[in-house]
TrEMBL record:
Alphabetized UniProt keyword annotations: Hydrolase, Iron, Metal-binding, Nucleotide-binding
Record PANTHER family: BIS(5'-NUCLEOSYL)-TETRAPHOSPHATASE, SYMMETRICAL, SLR1885 PROTEIN
GO molecular function, one term: hydrolase activity
Catalysed conversion reaction: P(1),P(4)-bis(5'-adenosyl) tetraphosphate + H2O = 2 ADP + 2 H(+)
Taxonomic lineage: Bacteria, Bacillati, Bacillota, Bacilli, Bacillales
Entry's EC annotation: 3.6.1.41
Name the UniProt record assigns to this protein: bis(5'-nucleosyl)-tetraphosphatase (symmetrical)
Native species: Jeotgalicoccus aerolatus
Length: 189
């Protein structure tokens, strides 16, 4: 898939505000691609498409989990945790798109995962730090990325903040989120 085609796919599928967020994530991912020596086309594609399934119907998402034999634990969660893994299979099937680095980056953009590749880490981080994000601590993470240039530390710091936030709201933590937290606690150095 080319950048222009992916842009059109995202624009037609998503409400304007969400599409704009995806454009900012893609632009942020491009900046990070330069710093961390990653393929810019893959970063752009994963960024623009990462929230493709954000507004899909929940019942259909559960059907896809079953039909595509995705992690059955996903059935215990809602759109927040499902939209990444679902978007990855839908984009693969609908557009015959098979790049596993891009598909994994889309699938893991919410939870993270252990042993992520460079595109996965960039999208996970770009989603959190794109210019319109205002969470407490986001400027520190922008510094870790653009000044210190420590991507594993950024992934860890984001995951720690996510888990804290989820626990404060008594939310259930998906196993890949926990695996990401533990793996990057070690990998961050
Ligand atoms: O789609 P975005 O809004 O751009 O952001 P996202 O996909 O990174 O996160 C979507 C939501 O997912 C966010 O409100 C927090 C939630 N989330 C992330 N990890 C987990 C989670 N929710 C639960 N219950 N468990 C998790 O492990
Ligand atoms: Fe998302
Ligand atoms: Fe995220
Ligand atoms: Fe997003």
């Amino acid at each position: 898939m080319k950048r222009k085609e992916a842009l059109k796919v995202a624009e037609e599928k998503l409400p304007k505000k969400r599409f704009k967020h995806c454009e900012r994530v893609a632009e942020t991912a491009l900046k990070m691609a330069e710093i961390f020596k990653a393929d810019p086309d893959k970063c752009y594609l994963a960024g623009i498409l990462h929230d493709y399934s954000k507004y899909d119907e929940l019942g259909k998402m559960y059907q896809t989990v079953t039909n595509e034999q995705l992690d059955p634990e996903l059935l215990e969660y809602k759109t927040e945790v499902l939209h990444g893994p679902i978007a990855a299979v839908k984009i693969k099937n609908k557009f015959n798109y098979t790049d596993s680095e891009v598909l994994k980056a889309i699938a893991h953009h919410t939870s993270g995962a252990k042993e992520m590749g460079i595109i996965e880490k960039i999208i996970f981080t770009a989603d959190y730090i794109e210019p319109k994000r205002t969470q407490p601590g986001v400027d520190e993470i922008r510094d870790i990325v653009f000044t210190e240039k420590k991507l594993d530390l950024a992934v860890y710091t984001i995951t720690k903040a996510n888990v804290r936030h989820l626990l404060n709201k008594d939310q259930t933590i998906y196993h890949k989120t926990i695996e990401c937290l533990n793996y990057y606690n070690m990998a961050k150095g």
